[in-house]
Amino acid sequence: MQIGSVKEVKRHEYRVGLTPSCVKAYISAGHTVRVQKDCGIGAGYEDDEYRAVGATVCNSAEEVFQASDMIVKVKEPQQAEYKLMREGQIIYTYLHLAADEPLTREMLKRGVAGVAYETVEPDNHTLPLLRPMSEIAGRLSIQEGARFLERPQGGRGVLLGGVPSVEKGRVTILGGGVVGTNAAKMAVGLGAQVTVLDVNIDRLGYLDDIFSGRVNTLYSNRANIERALDESDLIVGAVLIHGAKAPQLISRDDLKAMKKGSVIVDVAVDQGGCIETTKPTTHDDPIFVINDVVHYCVANMPGAVSRTSTQALTTVTLPYGLKIANQGLEKALRGDSALARGVNTYAGKLTYEAVAEAFGLEYVPLSQLLG
Q1: Which CATH number is 137-299 given?
Q2: Residue 328, Cβ density class (10 Å: 0-12 exposed, 13-18 middle, ≥19 buried)
Q3: Per annotation, catalytic residue among 96, 100, 233, 266
Q4: pLDDT (tens digit, 9 = 90+) per residue, 151-203?
């Protein structure tokens, strides 16, 4: 199979879909790999490293797209890349289609096979290709939240860990999954007072056990959310529904109950956000203020630590990518139900039900298209 990887064009996205070691694995399996010039620079990989393992370095994304059966990316195709996609081509990347109707319709129109990292799901209902980025985003949410709580950044001027004789900062995390757990680890490590809200009682019990009581766990209902709004210095939105638009837990009016200069970090921004006032931001302009509350809503948070993120991501995406390349997409999908769940678009049809529901589009089960 002809494999390609291009330089990401989303603003301040420094990760890359293939590292030189990934390229070596594909070539060792008998495939051809093309990469765009400077595609790995942001993650610390030089073109000569790709050449050394057998990749062809192309001058443009157009060259890579035209010659490749499968494009391995990090972020969803941007508008400038739409015209490069062609019928039958495999786009293997994060797609987050439930928050992007224009991209969804474009992929359907062009007949692209969209395999989304975030919906590859084994029978145990984990999300192995999303997990490493969720871990990183969860940890970064506290790091960035702590930074923007500083007064020169527009925050309240609160040190999360406090000092002796001074109250510690209060952190509330909405969602106790992978993002929420990693956010809690960082917040506890800094010495903050931490509360995690979730609707899964078993998950709350698990968090209570692993944190040995250092985290306050509460059932996520309206009363507890309202209390969190009043008390918190930092709120982290860490809610995820597999492949679907995130539920909105905090409204614009709710912000009036929050302290002036408090901070919201909405990690769910890729899926539309769990705060009504969320809108995507970038690393060079990461915040905005509404009702005196600082919002940090960077849609590609792990891109800030691009080398760590690239290495963590490609470690988990490579085995599935190799399976597609070695067996061909259709055979791979028939033999791997987890990978089949990752297919969001196929042959001009929408094959992921939650995305279809988000936009009122027709859903066609992948099994019908594969026969």
Answers
A1: 3.40.50.720
A2: middle
A3: 96
A4: 999 999 999 999 999 999 999 999 999 999 999 999 999 999 999 999 999 99
